[in-house]
Amino acid sequence: MLRIAIQAKGRLNEESVELLAEAGVSIEESKRKLLTRCDDFPLEVLYLRDDDIPQAVSMGVADVGIVGLNEVEEKGFDVKIAHKLGFGKCRISLAIPKADAYDGIGYFNGKRVATSYPVILSRFFKGNGINAEIHEIAGSVEIAPSVGMADAIFDIVSSGGTLVTNGLKEVEKVLFSEAVMISNQSLSEEKRQILSQLLFRIESVERSRGMKYVLLNLPHEKIDEAIRILPGMKSPTILPLAQEGWSSIHVVINERELWSKIEQLKTIGAEDILVLSLEKMIL
Ligand SMILES: Nc1ncnc2c1ncn2[C@@H]1O[C@H](COP(=O)(O)OP(=O)(O)OP(=O)(O)O)[C@@H](O)[C@H]1O
Ligand SMILES: O=P(O)(O)OC[C@H]1O[C@H](OP(=O)(O)OP(=O)(O)O)[C@H](O)[C@@H]1O
Ligand SMILES: [Mg+2]
To answer: Which alpha helices (DSSP H) does 41-160 contain, by range?
Structure first.
């Protein structure tokens, strides 16, 4: 049995639960306690505050965890980053009052900077030879300059909307973060195997993201041209249709290229085109 810690509530909770469900590991909402066993996979789910996940994993209270890279860096516990998960993307940035002129990082010398990430910030300042005063606050960091609590801030930015609302501008992007799967450094062989099974499932889900399954009908003599339009992809499946002289082609296409490929296929005579979502790609 592997024990995974995920955020109890907040920004990463929903997507963590969803990812596990897509990997065939379902947690019944009705059964939800702080520690829940999954029915269909040897996994126990422990719900924690995100701040506590790195320590729980490093101590072995949980074997693995889903948490923002920012928390892993800030807390500094010895854990392994087993997989980047691609959601909860944000950055931690330095921001200053909009009206201030910014002429480089020397701006911060002698300034008071409010943040919930003092470790990452002091490492950054140290690395850049900046001597600033760091004020640790737990939340509502963006309000600090306008109430005179600080001259600048160091906090999470995603759309940048919160900064604009508070009359601030982003001047240095210090850390790019996303949700990551962390693991304890010394998992037993059995737990390591469950984790690699879980990661295999997660990778199959990730691979299918943005991919579409396309079916279309085409005259036999156009098949070579169709294959040329679809280079770089695994060879398409070609099945004869009951109608003489026609085939059905099945192919997986990246959503980004979908319309341009379909337009090209139509010009060579493709008909009856069906585009389906792909749930999983297991290689
Ligand atoms: N605006 C955002 N856009 C994208 N990701 C974000 C954003 N804000 C935070 N995150 C990511 O989501 C994580 C959790 O954010 P959340 O605001 O839920 O944390 P919290 O308030 O500290 O929660 P908790 O109650 O668990 O301590 C952050 O550590 C960060 O990795
Ligand atoms: O650049 P933006 O898209 O505006 O996002 C950034 C904001 O998002 C987070 O706060 P959240 O909304 O989670 O509220 P919180 O202060 O309760 O954490 C973070 O602390 C920033 O304040
Ligand atoms: Mg927190």
So the answer is: 53-59, 69-75, 118-127
Q: Which residues pair with 30 in a beta bridge?
A: none
Q: Which ligand is nearest to the CA of 173?
A: 2
Q: Using the mean position of ligand 2's atoms as its centre, give its distance from the Cα of residue 169 in Å.
A: 15
What is the whole-number distance in angstroms between the Cα of residue 89 and the centre of ligand 1? 10
- Entry pTM: 0.89
CATH homologous superfamily of 2-85+179-207 equals Periplasmic binding protein-like II (3.40.190.10)
Whether the CB of 161 sits within 6 Å of ligand 2? yes
CATH of 210-277 among 3.40.50.300, 3.50.50.60, 3.30.70.120, 3.40.190.10: 3.30.70.120
Q: Render pLDDT for 133-176 as a digit per residue (tens, 0 to 9).
A: 999 999 999 999 999 999 999 999 999 999 999 999 999 999 99
Ligand 1, residues at Cβ distance < 6 Å: 7, 10-12, 49-51, 68, 70-71, 88-90, 156, 158, 177
Which residues face 233 on adjacent strands? none
- List, in order, residues 6 or more apart from 232 with CB less than 8 Å away: none
Q: What is the pLDDT of residues 78-89, one digit of tens each?
A: 999 999 999 999
Instruction: Identify the residue whose C-alpha is closest to ligand 1 atom 31.
Output: 68
Which structure tokens are listed for 152?
């600048």
Residue 103 and residue 82 in contact, taking contact as beta carbons nearer than 8 Å = no
The pLDDT assigned to 36 comes to 86
* pLDDT tens column, 242-282: 999 999 999 999 899 999 999 999 999 999 999 999 888 88
Does the CB atom of residue 155 touch ligand 2 within 6 A?
yes
